[in-house]
Model the fold of this input.
Amino acid sequence: MNVLIVEDEALAAERLTSLLQKTKEPFLIQGILESIEETVSFFSSGRKTDLLFLDIELADGKSFEIFNQVSVDAPIIFTTAYDQYALQAFKHLSIDYLLKPIQQEDLEAAIAKLKRMREQPGNANMPLTELKEWLLKEKQKPKERLLVKSGNKLQYKSTAEVAYFFADGKEVYIYTLDDNKKFLIDYTLEQLEGLLDTDRFFRISRKAIVNVDAITEVKGLISTRLEVKLKQPSIHELTISRERSSSFKAWLDR
Done:
């Protein structure tokens, strides 16, 4: 499979190349491009690729600008350090969205997702428009319940019952809306971003996703960050960085 990497950070490009080489797939790296200009030139020349790894923040702007200048007939896996771009990324032909530093297991999961899509009947050579519609359809089915652990028991919780999700190291917990109870779940925050209703949930930081129904107020801090106050007491500091603040306010104001 031919792979094109668009990444302006040398170390990040090297890391991704190394991770790809560790997979079981026979990837051929066609090249590593560093800018919107180089990428537009690549596709304008008529060249093709089977899979595109695309960094969102490039030296000459956000890579979404590429799609305004040229047609990209390839599945895309977006990569970035800023997860507020997830929704915009999925408006394009996006297979997945990986946060830096990219982890081997996340990369493997993204590749497996692409393979599953292509293995479905009729999907092997799916035209660009149909594949895009398939992706958007999948994104329009938010998860309505989650399997949670409580001691040695398993039970289901409706996502509507969740006040917020919080990552503590490698473990992720939900805190319920009415009784503030804590339950362990088998999902990462990255996975949850792709499963939850984006009208209801927003990832405010690397550690937390909040439910709009749990928010009572948002406070501005001197450091230009925002602090989210919930209807219930929280043992965690739920703050939003300057980079996420504008997209969070836009989400609240829908």
Observations:
- The first helix runs from residue 10 to 22.
- Confidence is low (pLDDT under 50) at residues 124-128.
- The helical segments are 10-22, 36-44, 66-69, 86-89, 104-119, 128-139, 189-193, 242-252.
